[in-house]
Design goal:
Layout lengths: L13 H26 L3 E6 L5 E6 L2 H10 L16 H94 L1
Antiparallel strand pairs: 1-2
Length: 182
């Protein structure tokens, strides 16, 4: 019998439509691969199944072909290390992004250096303040020790003075008593 021509119209049965889609998709991708291989053409195909699932084929890849189609540029000299052509606008945009990131990196390094210097100054100031603080604490302790010594000495002198007064008072009272009795 052989092959017969199929009328081109929508397949009504869902299962038959899915089977037809799968077979035709495979054949379509084979033909796209052949034209890319034989002619060196850049090919991209995107199809959605009846269920809504996407399928794609691209040579060298779908993204590069789509970018080239959307930018409408044919820049033969823009190829990457794999031989994949890149759109001139894409390369310019990527180069600009790299330049911007390098500038930001340099600015952040400068900020880091400034912060390191400020941190070193602050650390030095804090070390000086801590040293002065420890000296003040030592001086305070010395003054408190001196105060205690002075208070102890004052207390000793008051005690001695009281004893002397007491020692002098009884003699005077005794003299007064003797004077009154006599």
């Amino acid at each position: 019998m052989g092959r017969r021509k199929i009328e081109m119209k929508r397949v009504m049965d869902n299962n038959s439509r899915q089977v037809t889609f799968s077979k035709r998709r495979t054949g379509l991708f084979k033909k796209a691969h052949e034209i890319a291989t034989l002619c060196g053409a850049e090919v991209a195909i995107v199809v959605f199944s009846p269920g809504g699932k996407p399928f794609s084929f691209g040579h060298p890849n779908v993204d590069s072909v789509a970018d080239r189609f959307l930018n409408r540029e044919e820049d033969e000299d823009n190829t990457d290390d794999r031989g994949v052509r890149r759109s001139g606008k894409v390369v310019e945009r990527l180069n600009q992004q790299v330049d911007d990131l390098v500038k930001k990196l340099k600015a952040e390094k400068k900020k880091g250096e400034v912060l390191d210097r400020a941190l070193l100054k602050a650390k030095t100031k804090w070390e000086v303040l801590i040293q002065e603080m420890s000296e003040l604490v030592e001086a305070k302790q010395s003054l408190e020790d001196l105060r205690e010594s002075v208070m102890a000495r004052v207390s000793d002198m008051e005690a001695s003075s009281s004893l002397l007064l007491l020692a002098n008072k009884p003699m005077k009272e005794t003299e007064k008593n003797v004077a009154k009795s006599g």
